[in-house]
Design goal:
2 copies of one chain form a homodimer. By secondary structure, chain A is mostly helical. Chain A folds into 2 domains: about 15-60, Orthogonal Bundle (Arc Repressor Mutant, subunit A); about 70-215, Tetracycline Repressor, domain 2 (Orthogonal Bundle), CATH 1.10.357. The first copy, chain A, has 12 helices and no strands. Chain A has helices spanning about 20-40, 45-50, 55-60, 65-80, 95-110, 110-125, 125-130, 135, 140-155, 165-180, 185-190, 195-215. In chain A, α5 (about 95-110) packs antiparallel against α12 (about 195-215) and α9 packs across α10 (about 165-180). The longest helix of chain A has 23 residues, at about 20-40. Chain A is elongated. The model of chain A is unreliable at about 1-10 (pLDDT under 50). Chain B binds a DNA duplex through α3.
Amino acid sequence: MKNNVARPVDREGRKNDPEKTKEDILRVATEEFSAYGLSGGRVDAIAEKTRTSKRMIYYYFGSKEGLYLAVLEKAYRKIRSLEADLELADMPPVEALRTLIASTFDHDENNPDFVRLVSIENIHYASHMKQSSEIGELNLSIVKTIAAVLERGRGEGIFRRDVDAVDLHMLISAFCFFRVSNRYTFGTIFHRDLSAPELYNRHKHMICDAVLAYVRCSETSGG
Amino acid sequence: MKNNVARPVDREGRKNDPEKTKEDILRVATEEFSAYGLSGGRVDAIAEKTRTSKRMIYYYFGSKEGLYLAVLEKAYRKIRSLEADLELADMPPVEALRTLIASTFDHDENNPDFVRLVSIENIHYASHMKQSSEIGELNLSIVKTIAAVLERGRGEGIFRRDVDAVDLHMLISAFCFFRVSNRYTFGTIFHRDLSAPELYNRHKHMICDAVLAYVRCSETSGG
DNA sequence: TTGATAATGTACGAACCAGTCCGTGTCAAA
DNA sequence: TTTGACACGGACTGGTTCGTACATTATCAA
């Protein structure tokens, strides 16, 4: 194997493992960008926390922005894989909606890093996301799922007819997302720890109740 | 007001006007930090856009973070002054809630800079806000207002009894805030311009209906 | 008028930080 | 065993950016 037999015992030489290296960089970069933002994150800091060097970051990702984009794409790829199999088609419309809302709620609750990355991307006017073909093609299946559930509910005469699927998704997402994204300012102003376990169930019930009450409601607003 | 009557008619020399200078810096800094964040914002860029110099920024605000904090405090001071006089006490509970929701909705819609600053502050874990005595004491009157309206509604037997005022404020804020803060990513994914005028009324009606349906609803969730 | 102090401008320093240069190590196919 | 493509590390650089030293002018009270 080795041609230099006289090599001192030291086996701890370099092991080439490009996949591991890339994965390692991405993992550390996700933490860094999620914690400090794109402008606030430091390439040197990322390099130090990996088992490789800064040179490798540029070798694999080209630039700081390239790395950030890779982090963002990986984060979105992960949620896309999660949102697939809820199998709501067999459930009664009300139960299907409850399941869907609970799933969204739990996703944001359990992935604060993703929530932060999305906030950061919004601060940057979603400019990186737009430039990514991968994320750009996220034509989210969740909307079709919601639309189908709404349609079934209307068919059964229990849902109002003027609810748009994207709007409803926004109503659900907004609450679930805000609860995590604005945890710190909201918690500070109202002296309430939004990550407290007792609020978890209460808030989950709340958004379920609100959404269901809304889709069944026949009231029109004067607002 | 001025006691030096013999003020020479406009020599184009320096005019000392500390209030104007501070105000000018704050105005420009708000734009810069709101656009690029705390880490992304550049002190030099701010200085160039003011009619004064970088020296003055450090003279009045001490540091970049000091300036950022001043920007944040001014933004919160502004909303505090706005949220005072809605005079909901005389309205029927349902109308009072509608008015309150519409007001929150319009505030976020009309103050995207404020929304961005709050997002940015959350990325920083609200650390500056916590260190500000001024903002820290924002014991928002809006919660008392909501609590009073809820109480009246319960008295009239039209509102459910288990709704917490802070939770309800969060439900309202979340939708109004998200609509502005996540405009870019959400809009990109769903190919929908969230600042489009026709969505303004639809979304306003939606959050009104949802909240009102919720507070009247007697359903308990199985989620 | 004058002296104290507040306000302002210019130019510069020092640290930081994204990105690169140059050289070395790894491995598999020829 | 040679070779070439891929993988890798450490030191360096040049521009950027926060912050400041020093000089100057304005204001106002005594």
